[in-house]
Amino acid sequence: MLLYRFGPEGFYAARDDEEGAPPRILYSDPFEVRPGGWELGREAELSGLLPPVLPGKIVGVGRNYREHAAELGNPMPEEPLLFLKAPSAVIGPRAPIVLPPESQQVEYEGEIAVVVRHRLTRATAEKARAAILGVTAACDVTARDLQRKDATFARGKSFDTFCPLGPAIQVEPDLDDLEVVTRIDGELRQRGHVREMTWGLVDQLVYISRMMTLEAGDVVLTGTPSGVGELVAGQALEVEVSSVGTLANRVEEAVL
Q: Which residue, 46, 31, 67, is CA-closest to 215?
C-alpha cells in the first residue's frame, strides 16, 4: 500500500500498488490504524504532492555503507554514527533544492528513509520492526565543506530544502529487499541495497531508541551508498526506492 500526502490541506490518500487501483482519500489515522482497518473514501486527485510526513525529528545514520565511507576517506565507525537534521529542511516532490551561499560544495546523498509508526524507546528488534510504518525516498543533501569544517554535522545537514522526502510511503514493505537509486539529469550515480548496509533498518531503530525516544512520524535516514557528488544549479535530481516511486527535485541557486 502506498500512502500519499497532498495539498493544500495535507490530507492522506492510499493506493494499492499491486492492484493499480486509483488513490482514495484516507479517513483513518495511518499512525493509529493498521492498513487492514483503514477507511477509504472517494478517489483523490494527487495534485500538489506534499512531503509524505512532517517529522518531529530526523535522525541520520552516517557511514552505513562501507564504500561510501571509503570514498570520503573516513574510517568505518564501530557503532552507528548518529546525527540530527533540522525538520525545517524537509521539502516534498518537485520543490526546489536551494544552494545556500554559505557553502561552495553541496552534495546529494540518496537514501532509504524509515517512517516511525508509534513511540519507541529502548526497543527490542521485534518492537522496532512493529514500529515501522513504512519507507520513503530521501535525499540527505549535505554542505560537504561545512560538514568537514565543523565538529558536528548540524550546520552542513540542516539548511532549508536539504531534506527532500517522497513521493509516497510504502507501508509495511519487505525490509530485507529494498534498493535505492540516485540519478542526476537521468544519469545513474548511486545504487545501494539494504543487504549492503553495515546496520540493517531494524538494527538502526533498536540502537537509536537507546539514546532517544522515537515518536510517531519521526524519520530515520538509513545511510547512503557510494557515488555521492556535487549538486549544481539547473540539475534534475531523482531518488528512487523500491516500490515507493521516484522523488524528483530540481536544484536552484539561492535568490537573496
A: 31
First to last CA, the chain: 41
Q: Does 7 share its domain with 69?
A: no
Same structural domain for residues 27 and 73? no
* pLDDT in the model for residue 104: 98
Residues 25 and 79 in one domain: no
Q: What are phi and psi of 139, to 5 degrees?
A: -125, 115
- Alpha carbon dihedral 13, 17, 18, 19, in 10-degree steps, equals 50
On whether both 115 and 239 belong to a single domain, the answer is: yes
Antiparallel, parallel or unpaired: β 219-221 and 58-62: parallel
Q: Do 16 and 96 share a domain, yes or no?
A: no
The pLDDT tens digits for 25-54 are 999 999 999 999 999 999 999 889 999 999
CB of 215 closer than 8 Å to CB of 181: no
My answer on whether 140 and 99 are in the same domain is yes
Strand partners, 113: 136, 221
Domain that holds residue 109: 51-253
pLDDT of residue 19: 67
C-beta of residue 114 within 8 angstroms of C-beta of residue 220 = yes
For 130-186, write each residue's pLDDT tens digit. 999 999 999 999 999 999 999 999 999 999 999 999 999 999 999 999 999 999 999
